[in-house]
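Re: Re: token formats

Sure, here are both.
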Amino acid sequence: MQSASEHSEAADRPAPPASPEHAYPDHWEADVVLRDGGTARIRPITADDADRLVSFYEQVSDESKYYRFFAPYPRLSAKDVHRFTHHDFVDRVGLAATVGGEFIATVRYDRIDERGMPASGPADEAEVAFLVQDAHQGRGVASALLEHIAAVARERDIRRFAAEVLPANNKMIKVFTDAGYTQKRSFEDGSVRLHLDLEPTDRSLAVQRAREQRAEARSVQRLLTPRSVAVVGAGRAPGGVGRTVLRNLLGAGFTGRVHAVNAALTDGPAELDGIPAHPSVGAIGEPVDLAIVAVPAERVPEVVADCGEHGVRGLVVLSAGYAESGPAGRERQRQLVRQARSYGMRIIGPNAFGIINTSEDVRLNASLAPHMPAAGRIGLFTQSGAIGIALLAGLHRHGAGLSSFISAGNRADVSGNDFLQHWYDDPDTDVVLLYLESIGNPRKFTRLARRTAAVKPVVVVKGARHSGSAPPGHRVPVTRIPHATVSALLRQAGVIRVDTVTELVDAGLLLAAQPLPAGPRVAILGNSESLGLLTYDACLTEGLRPLRPLDLTTAAGPADFRDALAAALADETSDAVVVTAIPWVGENGATESGDGEVLAASLREAVASVPAPAKPVVVVHVEMGGLAEALAVATSTRPVSAGARTASTPARPATGGAAGPGPGADAGTDRGAPTQAPSAPVLRTTDPAAPGSAAPAAPGTTDPTAPETTDPAAVPPPDRQATIPAYPAAERAVRALAEAVRYAQWRRQAAEPGRVPEYEDIDEGGAAALIERVLGAGGDPDARGVTLGTADVGELLSRYGITVLPTLPAPTPDEAVAAARRLGYPVALKTTAPHLRHRPDLGGVRLDLATEEQLRTAYAEVTEVLGKPEELQPVVQAMVPRGVDTLVRSAIDPAVGAVLSFGLSGAASELLGDTAHRLVPATDRDAAELVRSIRTAPLLFGWRGSAPVDTPALEELLLRVSRLVDDHPEVVAVSLEPVVVAPAGLSVLGATVRLAPPPPRTDLGPRRLPSY
């Protein structure tokens, strides 16, 4: 089974040379999610682990021992135990994967020389060996250990691993060959000899992230699809959190087994709500997959221990009193996560509202929500229970169904990132809605959101935008960039950013029920000229291209609406249709009853009359009684495969309609809850950017499960009764439509991503040598960094093909004249004092000085008005062709990573915040979008008759700065200002560069869960 190398090492190898012991490397400790969704802890092996190692080895099969040592090796000798538990953490390192404090797998490396003998540095090769307990083989433990031991080896300047494996040990060979590292293989003396280059490659990173996605998605799936659930803390009397969740679980018709747990039930068998009740999880006597914990915080540790010792896979902790309550609560939360992970369990919460899975195969309502939502195609994640209630109510009111719902509270363990991993390839989810108050790992969130958005919409509203910080109790880097920058980066990743919960619902309704628009052209029709004009204005405000509104007049009836909508859907000059409606007024001035239901039927009839409509329809209504309800009640958004439901197989009620798993399940528990109408598919489009259509693979990836072609006969025809979203205000409808238009455009562009161009004149090695020289000159560099001098800035930037215009100091008038003669007239005289930098409006810049007399006059005027030369620090610079002053910057944020920014120099960027941002490395498409996305971009393209500037040269400069920062993470900040962009070419007049030890790149290291 799984094991590798070190041929009879315990008996044959000489003792390694003595080397000094190093301090215990606690930063090597990590919690990881395994292939089956469970967790394990990886940590260095120490001398205190002797008993654990012996116990672990005794549970390994003889076959696995043979594969490990290439000979029968029934037990470890005292010498073996000493060697395998004593390491210097440099030349000899051992790591163990543990669950419940016990070893389930080990890996070790020993540094070797070119002859394969034990060695110390500078030897850069090591022999690696694994051993995985048979009961845990197939869980991906060895693959996770390989990632971590490789990272440790690179940290210790080891560049290659060597491994010797028996040919029959296919599992271990596969671990090495599937890792994605560059490798060589040979067959020697009856064994397979493998050599792995440990430098990360694109393939090894892709393999690592694919494994991360599968593991984290599986861990969420285990929480959402339990076969049995225990509610711990269900009280004997009705009411209370535990009893409420138990009632909701039964009322939803959960398809698995349900158990109640109450520590006070010590008098023998009992029942609560007709299901078995027990004093502890251990007393249940059968496997439990999910435990809902609703006990006081001080009792949670004993519940976690009870669950962990009896094989529970996951916890939903509703209990409060954790990080949200202060320092003591934060420490309690850290202990909770550590304890749960030690047993391989994942946690939703604490302080959670609960989870819901509407799948007919599960019907899980393990939450405080009294009604089970209708089944649908929306996945909803929220940190706030109160916001979760509001969102559930809003979506239900508009007829939108959910695939799953999670209100994660403090999200100490399972977070929005985990659910993005799940929803990415969840066939039951077409749209993802997220309410977040903080983003614990923005770099990872952006990566996951980009990949998910390439196949389905991701809509985010972020609370606490101006006061947000790290998630309560989390130890993560805190972003220092403004909220506007974070929003820009999320939009770059394809995320639909909205500002309010109402907008979140509005966008979700449209995206779940309608196809994506092919463009920004909007047809407007209705029976109110004024409402049509309001809609027209709203379209212009959102950057859409509305057609002239079609006024059907107030005399128009339902048939007129039907005909006009059918014509608009068939018209190729529009990409979307907005229907506006006001009530019909009778002769006596009263509105007619039932108008909404009649109009809704006519609108659905119009949609049904057009073959495969590929454009969205939204409705704006003012006091149109019953219209929104009639359009919403048409269907949930859940599609049904062809033949899956017929007239003889009606839909199952959404709440309380099926007997629960226990004998006392009450079908009427959720009285008053509406039942689910028969499901119907969403309107679809052949546009690959449409939600719910055959999803294209994310850029740079392939989807091995996707069919190469789609058989039209296998696709059920679209149901013409699908939900048409209705909004009570034109602005809300148009804003949701505009978000869909922008997202569809992003999807089309993401299908053909840009490229990072190569430039032959870049001297990466020369730049690296300069950076090493500067950072090494002062011994241990200050973590805050070193600001380069003028000469070093010019040299570094020149290595990347960026020329900075020379600037000569002018501390006296005579030296200013000498500098001008050296540079050649005309020249510019500038003050460089910090309080005057980039402030030409204060008079510290004089341009086009063509003679010595003009220069001396300007020098005298500037020093007379603004201060002495030693205060002003004047300089002389040659004049350049006139153009538009811009700025180019890049900085590394500890949470987000390197960010490239662009704007116009001066008030536009500083006062108005008109700056665009993209993540590094930027592609040619990113550079083009940066230049065009600022509000003042028209100044670059010939505004009011001015000459357009050389934007291709500007885009190239952006790409060269991006390459510099991406190639050298020590370059933590670059600022080029001003950059004068002329009609032909550009000139960089000022530049500053700061170097510092690079922050750790957690996204490039081995997989790990957030630490505590």
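Second one below.
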Amino acid sequence: MPTAPQTTDELYRALQENDRRPYGRTRTVTAEELVDAAEQFTEPVPLVDALLALQKAYNYGSEPRKSPVVFARLLTLFDEQPDVFDERLRHLLFWRFKWVAHALRQLPEIPLASLRQWLTEMRDRYEKAGLELQPYYGQAYQLAAHVGEDTTLAYELWAGRTRTSLSDCEACEICERALYHLAAGDDERALRTWEPVLAGKESCQEEPARSVSYALLPLLRTGSTDRARELHLAGYRGCRRNPSMSGEVGRHLEFCALTGNEARGLELLAENRSLFDDVDSPLDLLDFLTGVEVLLQRVEFLGHGELPAAGYAGRTWTVAGLRAEVRGRADDLAARFDARNGTTAHTDRRSTRLDRAPLLDALELTLRARGLDDVAPAAPAAAPAARTAATVPEPLPELIARARTLDEQGHPDAAACWARLRTLVAAPDYAHPEDPAVGPLVQLRADLLADQAGRAGEKDGADEAAALYEEAASLYDEAGAPGHAALARACALLPAGGIPSEGADGAEAKAAALTAAHAALVRLHEETPGLAPYQEARMLRLRATALGLRLQTSGDEEHLAPVLAEVDLLLAFATRHDIAGQVSGALMLRASTYALSGDLPTAVTETDALLDRLRAHGPAWHLPRTLGLRARIRLGLGDAQAAHADLTESLRLAADWPTATVDTARLHGDLAETCMHLGRPDEALRHLTRSAELELRHGSRTDAFCSYSNAAQLSLDLGRVEDCIALLDSLLAEPDVAAGELDDRLVAQLRLTRARALHAGADLKAATAEFAALAAESAGWDDDPGSHAMIAAETAVLLAESGQFGRAREAANQALAAHVRAPRHEQLSSCLRELARLQAQQQGSDGLADALAFLADAGRIADEARAAGYEVRGRALDPALAYEHGRVNAYAREYETALAALDKALTLLGEPGPDADHAGEWAECVRLAGAVEGIYLERPAPARSRLDAAVSRLTALGHTEETEPLTSLAARLREKD
């Protein structure tokens, strides 16, 4: 706290500001400082309020040892100066007796006799104050349940009594009643009891997150898996990283362990690593650690004890090591509670949780379903998974020879051989065979570099691929293999040719670079005699590919013929030398070229012929890619159903080959697009996420995050808000994202989608904080002011929704400034109109001037758009602005002005026609004008005439749905008469 409050007004402002902070050390320390500041004042009430705020910080900040100490001070003040405590303070004081009882239960060092003595104190105080005893009996029941005594009588004494103003909130009491039935083994009754909380009808500071965490396993046991999944996603978000809800976090970890989601459990554990050190409540810590142990035990049982795990600070942990540490600490805590209570209840409850068998083999909790193998650290030279384990010869000369033969053929199994060789060569005791057929070690090292370069080129590493190819070429020169060296240099030219030089701009520069790359390939080809047929075929393939990429980049029709000429050269050469893989490669290039040129019917004919050839002569691993190509062409022709059939068949065949070889990720992405054309968004979402995960496994992280970004947006569009948030939380926790290694704009897009999802999920506080952070960051995007304008505009709306109109105005000004550099007429006008509506709605006449200022800005934007000839895609700006003037003035009770504005809007809109959107906007304008005129200006007759005429007009046009609110309002006005 910069300076201590010097007046009671300053103190109360500081208390209010601190109350807006999340629970944790910052809030608690500030509360402690404010108590010190309050002690300087002669009035006792500010000190009482400061002490109450401090106890609240301790209670919800998981510091139970300190809460009773603060309450003792409050109780002393009450005993000494009871008149200081008005009805509000007296209510809070007696409410907090329950907090102290709860705090004492959480501390095993407090004797059981002291807990019972405190309950006696509570009962005596309540009776002396003339208060009903239901809250006391509630605490007595909770103590009996904690100790492990027979709770039947204690439950009846509490649950059978009428609630009072000092009873726990309805949601908390529902949870306690449900837990009683759960302990009795009655899952279904417990869930019926919980229903109002789980359905969101009852809530409080801790609910529904607490109830959700307990209800997850009963839901599974009763077959409600879909609901358990939904509640896990929403409930976990409500308790994560919260020390006072560490037990709830532990139960979510347990849920993951028992549903085949161990990998997600480890991810959530990492997100909550701070809880190992931040939880001061021994009882909460025991609950958390037991959930952690259930997860780690399951992971170790599945054979992954050596996986890294997030645990106590100060050292790195494996699953097995952390499990042993957690088990020792949790066993000790359970023993301490049992020793205090004189029972074995806590040890028994731990054993029950640890002995519980998985309830489901696999429940897909999130859009990013991953297994433990996916979170294991990647081996440096891991080979892609093949259809079956590729046969890798053990004798080294045979292995080297097979790797080279398969590589010449372009066979997928070459990858497994190179991976095995890479491991062998890297070993300190590697001895290269003395065999002339194998060649020198330097040649093998060049082979491995060329393979590594190829894999880098398939990922996000064009620069890396080019450098590796150049290094391989030098080693081939050293080995006396000029043909291999030339081919490596040719491969280096293509990725480099696709990358414009520093400062180059746009497609023209890239096309020029590809032209230069092609020329260099031709020279290299002509200057390298003695190439083996397969090497010359690859050289020709690279030449054709360079020109194909140029056509794709430029779209210039003049670039078509050179591509086809190079393809014909390749096809003739490969046919003459019977190189099957290059024959099919040439035919695929030709089909792709026709597709790029827009000649889709010819492209389909070419792919049909190629598929016939591949089915008859192979190579079989080219079939999935070719089917994928035909599917994209068919989709371009508008035949989504045929495209879907091709892609489905392609994925079936792709299962026989390593995913990278047949580009399975691309096939899933194309199938997602096709499903969207067919109106099957849920199926599209599954394929999008599958595509993204395959790209991630293959190392194409940028492509993967782009696909995941699309999946997140689609899930949000489908209303699957919690799915969207859970997916984005998982992505944003990735190490390279946290370390700032991923493209910052891509990360910003992920965060923006998450902020919108939080808003859609009614978490206005979190959404506003994320939007504000993004607005601050995007202010520095000098190359993209348009995006900043949009982000700042959305931020302004969220700030206004939360009543922060000063900050909303600042954000809107930022958006307007960015709009000058990169106009966003339609979006910014909509934002300003919404800001005006929110201010007038929340502040009435007091906010009218500021609301009209927003509308004046929107008016200027409409004028700019008109002058620039901008064509809107949504609502016309001028009628929308006039309508908002009407609504804003109506909120401010300026009804005559409002009606005039609405009449202007109707004039600007014109009479409705067949377009449903225009008719709906016109009908809403008529409805509001009728309400203002008939209800607020008390002129029902002309209002009814207006409404009846509109209903007749809309009915004649067939817009019956739009007439319903008008008919309802007209009937209301008739009743008023």
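Residues 378-389, 500-504 have pLDDT under 50 and may be disordered. The first strand starts at residue 308 and ends at 309.
- S.
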